[in-house]
Write a structure and sequence with these properties.
By secondary structure, the chain is an alpha+beta fold. It contains 17 helices and 17 strands. The radius of gyration is 45 Å and the shape is flat. The chain starts with a helix and ends with a strand.
């Protein structure tokens, strides 16, 4: 089949081939990919909206539960309050005795202030004829004929959350919606009378809280077909509960049960009509089809006539390319872009043939310039680092001479001589780790005279690392930084640890690790991040800036010698100390 198709295509004219190419490689993929993209976008939008509606429903459920749980917790405290139990069971001698007991109750329990918290109204009823109706307490007979109490009795539950439209009061009181938390007070056995608790929550406050949440989609909290709460203006406190008739628009439904009441949280989905949008944009879609399909096809047929011959001529020229030389086109026809392309090709062939002979020489010259530049940069680094250590070492000797008059100065000078011999010898930029550690030990010994018992140090170098070479004065740079910025600024005793070891990775690569740790004053997080960024991005330009020039110098030379494969890590905590880790590939 492939052979037949191949022979068939070979016998088709270029114009028809271009047409087939356009249809199968441009038009059909465009239609298929656009359809897939449209489906993915619409599906992704639907999923995002669904996820947003789920989150909104969960948030409403959590907010509503939290608000009602406040009433439940209050009811539980009253339910188990022994003092309230005695107060409601007591047989008072008369109205005056009850009023005195009520005043003493309020004064002792501070109940009146707590009852009015957050516009919540708490009322307790008891089948006790000696209680005077009014305030927080009333006789049970007052509510026995009310519809909300009968609803509670019919439920057969000990506690109930009730959304209730109160239109049973006198005409001077405007009817309004209420949220009631009802509970029997029967915790204590052997009670002399029946007791009942009603907690009236602030309906308006709950509606306002729902609206202030500012959710994207309409939300309805319903009980059956009644709309209890909503965030779109369907929660007027002075009107009876409305009927919910938008089930066909519900995107997400959450069922919940609160204290004997089964509630539903409905989140309405957005109104979208894909077909309606397509019909509305049909003129634009038709224009796009005409522009992307019909016109290009017609124009391609007309242009193909002027393309085939000269493209074939160019193809023949490129087929004649041999070795490193380009062939020229003999006869050029036409002044359009293809004709100019053929002329430019001839000029390019002439210039390319001439440049081939010199390109390698230019490349060698460029490499020599790069090497010279790097050498100049290294010389600049050397000129900066020489006085850097000398001045710090001499400062240590000066401070010791000023503060003390001891014979150890000779030994200090000897250590300084060890340091200076390596410091001034720049015949090579690299040094064996063993020699570098001799310099480090001399430097720390010298600093030991300065700091005394405040400074202790430990050097731990694996034996198989001693003969490896690193840039000169790199380890001591970080040791010096630990002394000056870590130990010097801390009054307590401190340690400096230097560890050098190798590790072999699973890939077979061998890495060298250099760690310098101090127990000094440490760095703030902002300073740690800033210093780490400076180490990782060390450059010649950074040396011109003020700051820790020595560390920038050392990091830059480590990057140069490792072909920019050096990695730096810096961990520090104020009052604890600082650790610097350098990772290098092990090279010959």
């Amino acid at each position: 089949m492939l052979d037949k198709f191949y022979r068939f295509m070979n016998n088709i004219a270029l114009s028809r081939k271009l047409t087939i190419l356009y249809v199968f490689c441009v038009l059909l993929p465009l239609v298929v990919t656009d359809s897939i993209v449209l489906h993915i976008v619409m599906n992704d939008q639907h999923n995002k909206q669904q996820h947003a509606m789920e989150n909104e429903a969960n948030a409403i459920q959590y907010s509503l539960t939290k608000s009602i749980d406040y009433a439940g917790a209050t009811a539980k405290q009253i339910y188990m309050n022994e003092y309230i139990e005695r107060y409601l069971n007591h047989d008072y001698a008369g109205a005056l005795a009850y009023v005195e007991a009520y005043q003493d109750f309020v004064k002792t329990t501070l109940f009146k202030g707590a009852a009015g918290m957050d516009n919540t109204i708490i009322t307790m009823y008891a089948d006790n004829p000696s209680i005077v109706n009014g305030g927080v307490f009333s006789q049970l007979s007052v509510i026995e004929g009310m519809r909300w109490y009968q609803t509670f009795e019919e439920s057969g539950k000990d506690e109930l959350l009730l959304f209730y439209y109160d239109n049973e009061k006198s005409p001077v009181v405007e009817p309004k919606r209420k949220i009631l938390f009802l509970k029997k007070l029967d915790f204590y056995s052997g009670s002399s009378c029946d007791k009942f608790l009603k907690i009236e929550l602030d309906y308006g406050n709950m509606v306002r809280g729902l609206v202030k949440l500012g959710y994207e989609f309409p939300v309805y909290v319903c009980q059956g077909n009644r709309v209890l709460l909503a965030n779109d203006g369907h929660s007027s406190i002075n009107q009876n509960f409305e009927r919910f008739d938008l089930m066909d628009k519900v995107g997400v439904c959450k069922e919940m049960s609160l204290y004997g009441s089964d509630l539903q949280v409905y989140v309405l989905g957005p109104e979208t009509d894909v077909l309606k949008n397509i019909r509305a944009n049909m003129p634009l879609i038709a224009l796009l089809i005409l522009t992307n399909a019909i016109l290009p096809w017609r124009l391609m047929r007309e242009l193909n006539r002027s393309l085939t011959v000269r493209i074939e001529q160019l193809s023949q020229v490129f087929d004649k390319v041999e070795d490193e030389e380009l062939s020229r086109i003999g006869e050029i026809s036409g002044n359009d872009e293809i004709g100019k392309l053929m002329e430019n090709y001839n000029r390019m062939a002439e210039r390319t043939n001439d440049l081939i002979q010199t390109v390698y020489k230019d490349r060698i010259r460029e490499q020599e310039m790069d090497i010279a530049k790097q050498s100049a940069e290294l010389l600049a680094l050397h000129s900066q680092i020489n006085p850097h250590f000398l001045f710090n070492a001499l400062e240590s000797i000066r401070m010791h001479c000023v503060l003390r008059n001891e014979p150890e100065i000779a030994e200090m000078v000897e250590k300084l001589a060890v340091m200076e011999r390596q410091n001034v010898d720049w015949s090579s930029d690299t040094v064996e780790i063993g020699k570098e550690m001799e310099f480090v030990e001399a430097y720390l010994g010298l600093q030991k005279y300065r700091f005394g018992d405040r400074l202790s140090y430990e050097l731990d170098v694996d034996e198989d690392c001693l003969e490896l070479t690193i840039p000169k004065l790199t380890v001591v740079t970080f040791v010096e930084n630990a002394c000056i910025h870590g130990i010097e600024s801390k009054t307590a005793k401190g340690w400096i640890f230097v560890r050098i070891y190798k590790e072999r990775m699973e890939s077979g690569t061998e890495l060298l690790y250099i760690e310098v740790e101090d127990t000094g004053s440490g760095l703030k997080e902002e300073e740690r991040l800033r210093l780490l960024e400076t180490m990782r991005n060390a450059s010649i330009d950074r040396l011109k800036e003020k700051g820790r020039v020595g560390m920038v110098n050392a990091c830059l030379r480590l990057k140069m010698v490792s072909d920019n494969q050096a990695k730096f890590a810096l961990d520090s905590e104020q009052g604890i100390g600082t650790i610097v880790q350098i990772q290098l590939p092990v090279m010959n």
